[in-house]
Write a structure and sequence with these properties.
With about 90 residues, the protein is mainly alpha-helical. About 80% of the residues lie in helices and about 0% in strands. The chain starts with a helix and ends with a helix.
Length: about 90
Amino acid sequence: MSIILALLAAVFAAFTSILAKIGIENVNSNLATALRTIVVLSMAFLMVIITGQTDAVFAVEGKELLFLVLSGLTTGLSWLCYFKAI
């Protein structure tokens, strides 16, 4: 199953680049990043709700939360740079 998921991740990542390049053509890169982030955030929380993990959101401990926040910040910076570059 891991191989299938890894292949799907690669396919979706490829489509991400193609669709982003087309979508950002006449849109400010910061706005494009914000809109894309709203969609990703919505999908992620929808999966949390669908899988019944809403209670677990408040059970994340300090160290894990810190590293998840740092990971989110670096992801956001990466996306901002990526959209600016394309």
